[in-house]
Amino acid sequence: MTGPRVRFAPSPTGFLHVGSARASLFNWLFARQTGGTFILRIEDTDAERNRPEWFGAITSAMTWLGLDYDEGPFLQSELLADHAASAEALFANGYLYACDCTREEIDERLKHHAKPGYDGYCRDRQVARSERTALRFRVPEGGVTVVPDLIRGDVTFPHDSYEDFIVVRSNGVVLYPLANAVDDRSMKITHIIRGEDLLPTTPKQVMMWEALNHCDGIEPVDHPHYAHLPLLVNDQRKKLSKRKDPVAVESYRDQGYLSDAMVNYLALLGWSPKGDVEIVGRDTMIAQFRLEDVSHSPALFDVKKLLHMNGEYLRMLTTEQFVEAAQPWVAPWGSEWRPTNYEAPWTERQFDPALFRQVAHLVQERVGTLGEIAAMVSFFFLDDVPYDEAAFDKTIRHDEVAKALLASAIETFGSVEWTAVVLHDATLALGTAFDLVLRKSQAPIRCAVTGTLVGPPLFESMELLGRDEVIRRLRAAVARAGE
Ligand code: GLU
Question: Which domains does the chain have, with CATH numbers?
Fold first, then answer.
């Protein structure tokens, strides 16, 4: 296939960061829009921080988001021979030199230097290679490296701000700037789309690429285009923190965000669709996406906005789709995928799928996530009403009028026609008899029947619960208030 070749190259840290998910999405959108190829490469060579087995978290989050790749996953740890061969070529061509300085020696010398970083001590010493020598890159003296960036324009890095950086450690491990460039070359990557946090390392890769192009026996490869996506910041305008901000894509899935909503929201982090709309499907994103339109100013990762958008997506579902999407939270025992560490508030025996189907539309209008459904409808399935004690005290236990009203309600509800409309009118009439507006007459009934003061529409819920159950609950509440 001709056309652009892009890659998503995460390091497996155990979860998919929302910033990485956004980078993955933008690569995917670019590939799909240009008829290019989207490659997944797992950069798992940092033995201290990465574990190859953690890459399953990345692929399953990508599958959930619908970001399918055309090639890979390639594990960088299986490409070590290529990295080593390129390092040898760079050494043979004089781009790398051996260095036997210890950290202590360097620090000692630096005390007398104005400029921080390695001082080039071994540059011309012709140190013989051994298991104690690292290989450093000979950063060109003077001049600049320019990173042509499709989002930011040319970004210029003066060489004197770079020390002769280590490319191969003394233990033989080839480091990120070379490994990354070698793999991008061999995978024929044409566009490198990734987060702005990596921009400071980009000149090193450009230098590696350039040096490899001038090594004997190595085929020159055109430099790729770069596009560094804007930083994601929290509401304090600080870079998202792994520890303080909710950054794991998996946790949004666990909470009951829809994949479509998540993808739509991620797309808005640095890009915007045409016109005055924010809710756009994947096809529209693919049709409209242009790297050149991506902004370079930091993008606010706003969980409230994401929640709001998810609610809108939930309301766009048909009731059938909503019921289906809710299964992992309402009937986890039957679901192929389940939220991590989650238990439904009811047992399989207590849950009634047919009743849930009837109840679903009542909560579809009210929830922001699928994970909020269970608490809102648990009173339908639990024999013991889950009372909110504060609400019970306020609206029933310490309110004599309310207790009298509940007693009358038990009478009235015993014989009225059992529909939401009639129950509404009957409650209104009861209220009038006690000199209460509907909101007030409804409160003790709601608390007795559902346990709380918030939730799905009361009269529809009562209709679905049935006369016997509602009257049983009203009686139980009156008895409880008298205890
Ligand atoms: N593996 C690097 C990381 O996850 C990024 C590589 C890249 O996109 O060039 O930070």
Answer: 389-482 (1.10.10.350)
